[in-house]
Amino acid sequence: MKALVTGATGFVGQALVRRLQAMGAEVIGLGRNRLRLTQLESQGVRALYTDLADAQAIHSVCQGQEVVFHVAAFSSPWGQAQDFYRSNVIATQNVIHACEEGGVKRLVHVSTPGIYFRYESRLDVREDEPLPGQVVNEYTRTKLLAEGEIDRAFARGLPVITIRPRAIFGPGDTSILPRLVDRLEKGRLRVIGDGKNITDLTYIENVVDALLLCATSPQTTLGKKYNITNGTPVKMWEMIEKLCQALGYEFPRRSISYNSALAAATFLEIIYALLPGNPEPPFTRYVVGLLAKSTTLDISAARQELGYQPRVSNEEGFAEFVRWWKDTHP
Fold it and tell me: Which has the minimum average pLDDT: 81-85, 273-277, 317-321?
């Protein structure tokens, strides 16, 4: 397989590149983290510094590729609208056009189930359920716009397939669990709501499994979107308590109601949006919703149509994360 991976210096991209290389694929990795690009090169990967908003740059490297995995994105609960649009919409447009002009056989796109979010608990959400009328932040807005670009490309004849992986974690994680650890270290985490909400997680290697399945899935899967999770929901605050026990932190003793936390987050977002440099608030409405409301996804379509089966359980993945964290954060 000749494969191109955008976002190859990110959490998912690095894991995908490693697996492709182990399979003997001819891999090109694109990214903007020069240190990680150098590390990939030292491992025998052709790694290129590329700004995906530069149409010409992506066009030249897509020529002759069999599969392009578009993993790159600006993923954050906070940031400038133009940065999200540039990284998530314009970049996707450029990747699509480069694939069309380069004769790429398949484009595998990574989206987000964040587009389902409604500030309310939602269980077993399917891919075809109506989306909320209003998005929660610029990240989900631009990822939804990117999906629209993918849909239009498919209508023009480009073979595309999309996954929506939920809450990716594991060794190398830079977002989900590390953000929780940071708050626990600083004593800035409170239990929000009744503490009984459940959520889906997805171990990093399970996400890579799904991406590889998409690269060779039947023609009937093209143009579709697939939820990806570990298939077994967890109780959010029980998981955080286990994290505390594993890493030696005190579990939050204080709690706050969901409505109070949401009101505080709304106030903070207004204030921080006015500050120079647009710094990220201590917490946002989206983060409050994630920590207080239940969200689980129906992955039956991925199981039946892609042949996806989560290999690594939540428990196994959690143990791997803890082991990695202790090794890298002595």
Answer: 273-277
Is residue 77 scored above 90 in pLDDT? no
What distance in Å separates the CA atoms of residue 9 and residue 17, rounded to the nearest whole number?
9
Q: Is residue 28 part of a domain?
A: yes
Question: Has residue 291 been placed in a domain?
Answer: no
pLDDT tens digits along 237-260: 999 999 999 999 999 999 999 999
Asked whether residue 249 is domain-assigned, the answer is no
Backbone φ and ψ of 124, nearest 5°: 55, 50
Domain total for the chain? Answer: 1
Q: Which domain holds residue 92?
A: 2-173+201-231+296-311
108 contacts 67 by C-beta, under 8 angstroms: yes
Mean pLDDT value of segment 159-188: 94
Phi/psi at 242 (5° precision): -65, -35
Per-residue model confidence (pLDDT) at position 57: 86
Question: What number of residues does the chain have?
Answer: 330
- β-strand partners of 226: 163
In angstroms, the CA 292 to CA 12 distance is 26
Q: What is the CATH number of the domain that holds 132?
A: 3.40.50.720
In this structure, is residue 278 part of a structural domain?
A: no
Marked catalytic residue, from 49, 85, 119, 139: 139
Question: For the chain, what is the mean pLDDT?
Answer: 95
| Residue 139 annotated to the active site | yes
119 Ramachandran zone, left/alpha/beta (phi>0; psi -120 to 50): left
